[in-house]
Write a structure and sequence with these properties.
Elements: H1 4-7, H2 11-14, E1 24-30, H3 49-57, E2 59-65, H4 71-80, H5 84-87, H6 109-114, E3 119-125, E4 145-149, E5 162-164, E6 168-169, E7 183-185, E8 188-191, H7 199-216, E9 221-226, H8 248-269, E10 276-282, H9 309-312, E11 313-319, E12 327-329, E13 333-334, H10 338-346, H11 361-366, E14 374-377, E15 390-393, E16 396-402, E17 423-432, H12 453-469
Parallel strand pairs: 1-9, 1-10, 2-12, 2-13, 3-4, 3-9
Antiparallel strand pairs: 2-11, 4-7, 5-6, 7-8, 10-11, 14-15, 15-16, 16-17
Length: about 500
């Protein structure tokens, strides 16, 4: 196991007192990772030693939720502390030719930290819009530096994506009509198409340089590392290909865990381990349609694109050496809570907008109860007339609508499949998630028990209150597409997209 784990024990003695300094923040966001994909969450053949060690020395969450069961909405909420319906990042996701993006009026974690003098950088998968002349890139949203791909790596021709060396191209479903995948440095194309056998190592070197520069300048830093792993199609460099007994998904997972180890080791080497908060989670549940190449929801029901627990409940680990109360917590929490929590820990001012998150700092530092008691589940295809599909209040979860999804195909449960139609439930389906996290046993069938009537009334009233007060922004993903927006490092070349090489 990487040396930082053993050396962490003496880090406090070797590091100057930084108790008065604002903490550095490293936010690591996985892609399409299921609740059951990590060793620390019970997978028997996932080799994730760095994440598992971080969980052992930090706080592991068992009731942590993302807001969108697909990529773009969940990333919008992560950075703004607001449901995607408030920013208009719905329905579905952005494409290379999408006209819209995360509105520049939205305030991100990076922007509030910049007001506190933080150095900020974003590395990896953005997927919150590109726009004309890079209108929606991270550099327009509070990040001083950006190295990465503006959208998902399956939004390009699979034939140009080298997944496993030596020179084995990916097979599967990709967007063949899209442009070759680019890597941006700030707002310019650095490489097109991407060399995936070298990409992660390039990211790691960039992260190391960014952290070292911030430390040398005595500036706190915020690094948002949005991994391409473990989204399909999987890839891995020669350092990790063929090393996992879990196959190609396991190799990709192992490479992501290796990056976590590199970040931890860099921070430890620079003597700032006891003043750096690591946050790890994922954007949405797994693509079970990919079978063994698509991740695992563990004991949870269904996966990506559904509002069952497998679509929105995610692994989450927070680690801050010597500061966070270690252990496992079942307190309810969400990506929505990261912005207010980071603001509280750094002394940053909250934006003057409606926030949907809560400050979890006392959960982290003192093991107190979470201020969050409710969570609201939106589907990818948000319908403002229907609103939320499900609501959790305390241990109870009510489904008002259910629907299967293409991304959740192939599991034995027919409720997950695309053939499971949109179904309204009145009375709703009701599950006790403390006793039944797999959502197997509807408490309101065949009749509504007397002792549950007050609970049901409270849930229905809360649904109506939330829906009445939600102000839906105009959809950004429905603003249309313009093929001229597809990035090309040789914009005058023909024929596109095959000529876009640099």
């Amino acid at each position: 196991m990487i040396a930082w784990i053993a050396l962490a024990l003496v880090s406090f003695l070797c590091t100057a007192d930084a108790s008065s300094a604002p903490p550095n923040i490293i936010l690591i966001f996985a892609d399409d990772m299921g609740y059951g994909d990590l060793g620390s969450y019970g997978h028997p053949t996932s080799h994730t030693p760095n994440l598992d060690a971080m969980a052992a020395r930090g706080l592991r969450f068992t009731n942590f939720y993302t807001t969108g069961a697909v990529c773009s909405p969940s990333r919008a909420s992560l950075l703004t502390g607001r449901f995607q319906t408030r920013s208009g990042v719905y329905p579905g996701v952005f494409y290379p030719s999408s006209v819209g993006g995360l509105p520049l009026s939205e305030v991100t974690i990076a922007e509030i930290l910049q007001t506190r003098g933080y150095a900020t950088a974003m590395v990896g998968k953005w997927h919150l819009g590109l726009g004309l002349n890079g209108t929606f890139l991270p550099t327009r949203q509070g990040f001083q530096h950006f190295l990465g791909v503006p959208y998902s790596h399956d939004q390009g021709p699979c034939g140009n994506l080298i997944c496993f060396p030596p020179n084995i191209t990916c097979v599967g479903t990709c967007d063949l009509g899209e442009t070759l995948l680019p890597v941006f440095i700030d707002e310019k194309i650095l490489q097109q198409p991407v060399d995936f056998t070298m990409l992660v190592r390039m990211y790691e070197r960039f992260c190391q340089g960014f952290i070292e520069e911030a430390v040398s300048e005595k500036r706190p830093f915020f690094l948002y590392y949005a991994s391409h792993h473990t989204h399909y199609p999987q890839f891995a460099s020669s350092r990790y290909a063929g090393r996992s007994i879990r196959g190609k998904y396991g190799d990709a997972l192992l490479e992501m865990d290796g990056t976590v180890g590199e970040l931890l080791q860099t921070v430890q080497k620079l003597g700032i381990l006891n003043n750096t908060l690591f946050i790890f989670t994922s954007d949405n549940g797994p693509e079970t349609m990919r079978k063994e190449r698509g991740g695992s929801s563990g004991l949870l029901k269904c996966g990506k694109s559904t509002t069952y627990e497998g679509g929105l409940r995610e692994p989450a680990i927070m680690y801050w050496e010597g500061k966070i109360k270690t252990g496992v917590t079942s307190e309810m929490s969400s990506t929505l809570d990261l912005l207010p929590t980071i603001a509280a820990l750094t002394g940053a001012n909250l934006p003057n907008v409606t926030l949907d998150g809560y400050d979890l700092s006392q959960v982290l530092l003192n093991g107190e109860k979470s201020p969050r008691n409710t969570f609201y589940y939106y589907p990818p295809s948000v319908d403002t007339n229907k609103g939320i599909y499900a609501l959790r209040m305390g241990k109870y979860k009510a489904h008002f609508y259910t629907q299967g999804a293409f991304h959740s195909e192939t599991t034995p449960d027919p409720d997950c499949h695309v053939t499971a139609p949109l179904t309204e439930h009145n009375p709703p389906l009701l599950f006790d998630l403390d006793k039944d996290p797999a959502e197997n046993y509807n408490l309101l069938k065949p009749f509504i028990p007397k002792d549950l009537e007050p609970i049901l009334t409270e849930i229905l009233n809360e649904r109506d209150r939330f829906q009445t007060n939600m102000q839906y922004a105009p959809s950004e993903t429905n603003k249309g597409k313009d093929s001229s927006l597809k990035p090309c490092c040789n914009p005058q070349c023909t024929p596109k997209p095959s000529c876009c090489h640099c």
